[in-house]
Amino acid sequence: MITSHPESWCQQQLADHQLHQLLEKVDADLAAQAHVGGCRFCGGKLHRADYERKPRGGPAWDCRYSFCCAREGCRRRHTPASVRFLGRRVYAGLVVVLVAAVVQGLKPQRVARLRQALGLDRRTLGRWRQWWQVTLVASSFWKAARARFLPPLDPRTLPGSLLKSFAAHRRDRLLELLKFLAPLTTPAAWPEQVM
Ligand SMILES: [Zn+2]
Q1: Hey, which residues does 67 pair with through a beta bridge?
Q2: Inter-helix orientation angle 171-181/17-37, to 10°
Q3: Ligand 1 center to 122 CA (angstroms)
Q4: I need a surface site. Which of 40, 91, 96, 161 has the fewest CB within 10 A?
Q5: What is the pTM of this model?
Q6: Across the strands, what pairs with 48?
Q7: Phi and psi at residue 92, to the nearest 5°
């Protein structure tokens, strides 16, 4: 799907300013939808209460959109889904998706070079693989979502097979893939995904 130099492709995406802007816009839209919907517990109005978050490996993003219910006695927090922040991970979602996919099948020296270029240690890559192949596949999100892939995706081939299935070498399809994963990015989905 991706040429003979998946590392270069990956690094291009990670440095692609237009892609970053697109992701920012999608997150702003998701936040606007959540805001309009109001508090899902009491119907109260929502106020902005963003989190300060600076994900590594991505562009200079510095906040994740979030809201708090304005009604006294409720005040519950609402954090909309995101195409930029994948759960509580310190790296931008784009990095966790792309790097974990392109290193699959690469020779160890090439993996090491990519890790060096991106400042990633070996353990981080190992944790991402574990997340994709074990934690994600055990989640209720995946159990509900996996039926859309025919033939079914072998967990051992994740996330590369997922990128391939989405034809994510195209920017619009990569965006669709990040939107597909977005339900995993809300705090409600976190307890299942501790890593
Ligand atoms: Zn409320």
Answers
A1: 48, 78
A2: 40
A3: 43
A4: 40
A5: 0.88
A6: 67
A7: -60, 145
